[in-house]
Amino acid sequence: MDWHFAAAAFATAITIIDPIGMIPLTVTSTAHCDVSRRNRIVDQAVFVAFIVMLAMGVVGPLLLDYLGITLPAFGIAGGILLFLIAMDMLFARPTGVRGTSEEAAEAQHGVNPAIFPLAIPMIAGPGTLATVMLLVNIARGDLLKYALLFAAYSAALFITWLCMRGAARYMDRIGMTGIHVVTRVLGIILAALAVQFVLNGIGQTPLFKH
Q1: pTM of the model
Q2: Cα separation of 29 and 36, whole Å?
Q3: What is the rounded distance in angstroms from the CA atom of residue 84 to the CA atom of residue 194?
Q4: For the residues of 98-141, what is the DSSP string, one character each?
Q5: How many distinct structural domains can be found in the chain?
Q6: Is the residue at 209 inside a domain?
Q7: 70 in a domain, yes or no?
Q8: 71, 116, 164, 173: which could join 42 in a potential S-S bond, CB 3.0 to 4.6 Å?
Q9: Is 96 strand, coil or helix?
Q10: Which residue range forms the structural domain that includes residue 42?
Q11: Are 145 and 5 contacting, i.e. CB atoms less than 8 angstroms apart?
Q12: Which pLDDT tens digit goes with each residue over 122-142?
């Protein structure tokens, strides 16, 4: 088993989805709902995000091949995107990559925020989808790596589901300060992973190969 790939897949899945960070977003988006409806919304959001991520993992590499985008180029671009998200996490800024303030306001007044904005872009946002495509390309042809990648994102989504299901309760216990602390720690890890993706991409380009 490739333990390095497994560790990278699980760490990237947890940090980019940020289950703890989904707690206040869920509370805000479902403030107008009762408990049973909030639970249905959370179930739908996580299921839709799973389908979108799975579809991108299958179609994404084919799209990259069709467009002639190489793995090193995508690795560098994906790493830069993840680094920008990590900076927002480190400085506790609302990231426009995951969702804008206008989208959050719309969710508060919307009928069902499960698909928008909870599933997309808060769970399965551009950074998450880019990471899925990047790791699928790295694992290309290796069934064990595919299985590890599937397990990593399934586990991350399950943890996210647990956090979102108990969002109101966790919010009272952890508080915004606790959520910001955890998010900053995840941001540091994500920043390091992003830099590594960029370095790997640069190292795989013909210009820098020995």
Answers
A1: 0.85
A2: 15
A3: 9
A4: T--HHHHHHHHHSS-TIIIIIIIIIIS-HHHHHHHHHHHHHTTT
A5: 1
A6: no
A7: yes
A8: 164
A9: coil
A10: 3-204
A11: yes
A12: 999 988 999 999 999 989 889
